[in-house]
Design brief:
The protein is of the alpha/beta class and 261 residues long. Helices cover 46% and strands 11% of the residues. Strands 1, 2, 3, 6, 7 and 8 form a 6-stranded parallel sheet that branches. A two-stranded parallel sheet has the order 4-5. The chain is globular, with a radius of gyration of 24 Å. The structure holds zinc ion. The site of zinc ion (ZN) has 5 residues, from loops.
Amino acid sequence: MNFRKRNILFVFTTIIICCLFASLSPKVNIKKNTQAFAPLNTSFKDSGDYKVSKYVYLTFDDGPTYVVTDALLDALKKERIKATFFVVGKEIIGREIILKRIYNEGHGIGLHTYSHNFKKIYRSTDEFVNEMKKTSKKIEEITGTTPKIIRFPGGSSKRLNAFTLNDLHKNNFKVYDWNVNLCDGVNPNLSVSQLIKNSKIIKGNENLAIILMHCNSNNKNTVKALPGIIKYYKDLGYEFRAITENTPEYYYKFKTKKTSL
Ligand SMILES: [Zn+2]
């Protein structure tokens, strides 16, 4: 083999090796992503969609209230974004018009008990289910729909187990916790910049952000923080979605073996 032929063979071999590397590298990336986005300590079963798409669910608990819920709805309308409101049954009384607005503007409506009284709602599974049913009935009277998506006040951690989940499923309820916490429930007076900072901390699957926010009458800073939160996730390419009965359930792994709530 002369020098010229050897050179051609060297270039040819180099090209083949480069092509081989190029074809292998995407496979390596996909594997890396799959591992990074494996569900952590939740019921969440990755359907595969979340490996390639990024979804954010804005959720607002404890409403409806007049000023705050209304202002949140204005902001969502302006951005053409759908969110989810986990409403408290007793709060609907006298504010039916706000609930109607949530429904008419295409947002998700979830159940968050009727009284939000922890001592009462967590007395027994039956009590908990009855509170959800009572709230569902109230919503049906106003909107004609019977929501089946629910959220535990304070979260399902240490409250949900296989037995209670079975009871909830028998009533067709689906449970949704969160993996991003604005911390505006315990501390509604957090500064707007702190709320936005909190909205960026995702636990577990980074392609899925279920953000816990509140719309009590004192959550005025949450209203002010919302545009910044929306901008952050928009810029990162997340798609905004409302929770529906078709959304995979999202609850924390059971931490107790107790047989009731
Ligand atoms: Zn609540």
